[in-house]
Amino acid sequence: MKVLAIDSSSKTATVALVEENGVIGEYSINYLRHSVILMPMIDELFKKCEVPINQITHIAVSEGPGSFTGLRIGAATAKGLAHALNIPIVGVSSLLALAYNVSEFEGLICPIIDALNENVYGMLIRGDNFEVLTEVGVYSLEEIAGLVRNYSSKVLFVGEGVYSYKNKLQDIIGKKALFAKDKDNMARAVSLGEIAIQKIKNGEVVSYFDFKPVYIRKSAAEVRLIGEGS
Question: Which DSSP string corresponds to the chain?
Fold first, then answer.
């Protein structure tokens, strides 16, 4: 089993080759022009790792939430490659992949992505066994604090949302709130790929035709269009 993992849901474009025995290689760039750099990154990854593309058995891709444009670019790339290679796709939550970056933490893990206007895409996970405690959703900072108060454990916040709301979360939650290091706040295709391996073993795969990103809510453009039409 060899998995090509792709995540372009955030500012970071990241791709990796992962197999059951470990990581073959990873390539990440913090640069927003994903439509320009994603395919060259994938091509370079195959070349440097000396892995023929026809050895890939699955493609893992972020299913969201995250940047609407980034998710569409990642989905289109994954679907095109899966179609050409006639292999299945594994969708992985971008929040779950962020939590995986710090999965050794034994308290609560709360991955957050900025959803603007002091809202975040978030979820709550128990670090010791990676149990999902609350599903992915859009939460205000106060709602996130309310979720955390239901547990006695400290909570480790991870993801790009930390850069936007660290101070406010610290004020609301206090000493119970911890924050991941910068390197762990970046999306990593390796984390996404390792989660995908477990999902593949559980039979959680779809065809290139059936895969769709999970946007959680409408884009700003769609909201404006609905408002103008009402």
Answer: -EEEEEE-SSSEEEEEEEETTEEEEEEEEE-S-HHHHHHHHHHHHHHHHT--GGG--EEEEEEESS-HHHHHHHHHHHHHHHHHHT--EEEEEHHHHHHHTTTT--SEEEEEEE-STTEEEEEEEETTTTEEEEEEEEEEHHHHHHHHTT-SS-EEEESTHHHHHHHHHHHHHGGGEEE--HHHHS--HHHHHHHHHHHHHTT--B-TTT-----SS--HHHHHHHHHH-
Please tell me whether residues 155 and 211 are part of one structural domain: no
Q: pLDDT tens, 38-77?
A: 999 999 999 999 999 999 999 999 999 999 999 999 999 9
Q: Do 178 and 199 belong together in one domain?
A: no
The verdict on 7 and 71 lying in the same domain is yes
Q: Give me the domain span that covers residue 32.
A: 2-94+186-229
Residues 82 and 107 in one domain: no
What's the structural domain count of the chain?
2
Q: pTM for the complete prediction?
A: 0.91
